[in-house]
Amino acid sequence: MDRKIQIDTFSRYYQVSRETITSLMKYEELLLEANKSLNLIGNSTVNYIWHRHFLDSVQAIDFIDKNQKTLVDLGSGAGFPGLVISVIAKDRKIPLKIKIIEKSKKKVIFLKKVVSELKLNSDVINQNVEDEKFCFDDDTFVARAFKPVPKILELIHNKAQNLKKIIIFLGKNGMSELLQASKNWDIKYKQSMSVTSNDSFIIEINKLLKK
Ligand SMILES: C[S@@+](CC[C@H](N)C(=O)[O-])C[C@H]1O[C@@H](n2cnc3c(N)ncnc32)[C@H](O)[C@@H]1O
Questions:
Q1: N or C, which terminus of the chain has less Cβ within 10 Å?
Q2: What is the distance in A from the centroid of ligand 1 to the CA of 182?
Q3: Atom in ligand 1 nearest the alpha carbon of residue 73
Q4: DSSP H helical ranges for the chain
């Protein structure tokens, strides 16, 4: 799929202003430049940023409530899905602050540059979420290609006192990870198929109890 078709496809699924498309083009440019020295995205996806990363990431916006104030993106890497959601929230004038958590200092420098150039309502936090003393006071989390599902659930359950919602992108092993996790957890979730891949899903967990 060539780049123009990818941009058209993105715009068909998520209608945004011309200004927002220009912002995403700037993001793409910064990403391609930084990716020469940093391992931000896989080589196989370099020519498919709009489809594999932008369109894939933006799907999380469908799980965000209108009155929600913050969203924490765990292990954001190149900013996925957090910064893409931030771009779309800005387009839709949703006052949502995205907290981007990333343990790699080099990636954090890149992420801060994108936030500053695109003027996004996001805080980039250089933090290893597994640090013993670290905990969250936030209630809504998103994770894409961060850790296996059981690990994500354990981590959030242990560190988030006010948990309301977890949005997780599941790849082709995701369903078996979820099945594995349900041996130890009582999980209530809604699921929707990804528009970018036949074997991927996005789930929204609204209840998580240890069995
Ligand atoms: C496979 S990448 C996925 C990045 C992005 N979410 C995506 O979908 O492309 C996982 C990211 O999580 C970060 N990470 C891994 N463990 C972490 C931790 N304990 N705390 C914070 N970030 C972490 C890594 O540095 C890496 O950037």
A1: C
A2: 23
A3: 6
A4: 3-13, 18-34, 56-58, 82-91, 105-118, 149-159, 174-181
